[in-house]
Amino acid sequence: MEAKDENQLASLLRSQGLVLIKASPQGKKGGLKKISEISIGIGGVSLAEKMFFTRNLQVMISAGLSIPRAIDIISCQVKSPAFKKALTNIKDQVAKGQRLSDSLSSHSKIFPSLFQSMIKVGEETGTMEEVLKTLATQMERSYELQSKIKGAMTYPAVIVSAMLLIGAAMLIIVVPQLSSVFESMNIELPMTTQIMIGLGKFLAEKWYIALLIIAGSVIFFMWFSKKPFGKKILDWTALKFPVISPLVKDINSAYTVRNLSSLSAAGVPLPKSLEITSETVSNGYYKKALVDSANRVRKGEKLSEALKDYSGIYPQTVIQMVAVGEETGETSTILEKLADFYEQNVTETTKNMASIIEPIMILILGGGIGFFAVSMMQPLNSIMHGIH
User: Fold this and answer.
1) What total number of domains does the chain contain?
2) 124 in a domain, yes or no?
3) Backbone dihedral region of 178: left (phi > 0), alpha (psi from -120 to 50 degrees) or beta?
4) Which residue from 149, 154, 155 is spatially nearest to 347, judged by alpha carbons?
5) Is the pTM of this model over 0.85?
6) Which of 16, 54, 259, 296 could potentially form a cystine with 277 if both were Cys, beta carbons 3.0 to 4.6 Å apart?
7) Domain end call among 104, 132, 160
């Protein structure tokens, strides 16, 4: 079709009831992409993109499109090169007769065990549309939960960053100027003033060493957090630290019951559901609890009984509601309502945490400014008294 540009082409097609998926000028191949179209793809595929894929795949399958055709259309709309490449590969494998769940298993870094298992259940029971709908809902809830947590942490992060930048600027710019005044007066300086002047000179003259120390600290923390002993220490600290502990417990409880609810509704056996859910929680103590519970349930024990040994990390509400679900046969429904409850708890906890952190940040900021003012003003005050 002849058109001035892609926008005009899209308008012409829209007038015919069609939607532009892909276009390229006749006689031209490849070429440089516009900067806005280039995606670096650092950090893998985002949850938002996987959510977009799942929801659209469900809609297209319900409309009667074949899975390869649906995936092909979606792959043209995703931005991540890594995700686009994976979807193209999956589409080719499915078109050759391979099952979708088997094709997804070769891309486990993008599609976790929970996703693969539920798709497999959908294929075996002929309920692919319902399974995809459940998966999309579950991912949307996870996305909302992550967004709320990130939103609550943004304010403290901005305040801390501002404090560090202002402090560094004062030490590099203001302190050296005052230091030269003190040196010309040849007066004895208090210890706090000497510390401030020394730190200011170090940052002004050896700033690159300070940057190396910061970078080294970040790298060491990342290395430490990935090592089994380091992660165990951090996980234990997260469960014991007064302010963070309630939030960590609510988040892991929410993920546990939400994923168990989705897997149970899809028909995945409980031991397998527990093993898959253990891969979705971040804290190692929760992973151990779920794997142990899976082994005990496989031997015939009830889940509520297995969880009683982990009442230190799982609230009594979770254990009791699981027991009610086992007695009534409505485990999936009860877990879903329980997940809503704990996700709401996380929202309230993050709001409360933000209101607690704000005055703490103000006190720390005030303390820092006060320490700086006293350290710098004390010698000036001595000079003024000497002149008098």
Assistant:
1) 2
2) yes
3) alpha
4) 149
5) no
6) 259
7) 132
Cβ neighbour number for residue 218 with a 10 Å cutoff: 10
Residue 61 sits in a domain of what CATH number?
1.20.81.30
CA distance 334 to 315: 15
Neighbours of 301 (CB within 10 A): 12
Q: Is the pLDDT of residue 296 over 90?
A: yes
- Cα(362)–Cα(152) distance, rounded to whole angstroms? 17
CA dist., res. 20 & res. 11, Å (int): 9
What is the C-alpha to C-alpha distance for residues 307 and 54, in angstroms, rounded to an integer?
A: 32
Q: Are 215 and 221 in contact (CB under 8 A)?
A: no
d(CA 5, CA 17): 19
Report whether 100 contacts 123 (CB < 8 A).
Answer: yes
Q: Is the CB of residue 264 less than 8 Å from the CB of residue 335?
A: yes
In a domain, residue 1? The reply is: no
CB–CB of 234/243 below 8 Å?
no
SS3 state at 172: helix
Measured between its terminal Cα atoms, the distance across the chain in Å is 90
What are the start-end ranges of the H helices in the chain? 6-15, 47-62, 67-75, 81-95, 100-105, 113-125, 128-169, 175-185, 191-205, 207-226, 228-240, 245-266, 270-278, 284-298, 303-308, 316-328, 331-387
Predicted confidence band of residue 363 (pLDDT cuts 50, 70, 90): confident
Can you tell me whether residue 314 is helix, strand or coil?
coil
For the stretch 235-281, pLDDT in tens is 999 888 877 888 888 888 888 888 888 888 877 888 888 988 888 88
Measure the CA–CA gap between 304 and 294, rounded to whole angstroms.
11
Instruction: State yes or no: pLDDT of 384 exceeds 90.
Output: no
31 within a domain of the structure (yes/no): no
pLDDT band at 288 (very low <50, low <70, confident <90, very high): very high
pLDDT digits over 150-201, tens only? 777 777 778 778 878 888 888 888 777 777 777 777 767 778 888 888 888 8
Domain final residue, candidates 132, 160, 181: 132
Cα 367 to Cα 101, 196, 298, 373: the distances in Å are: 57, 15, 57, 10
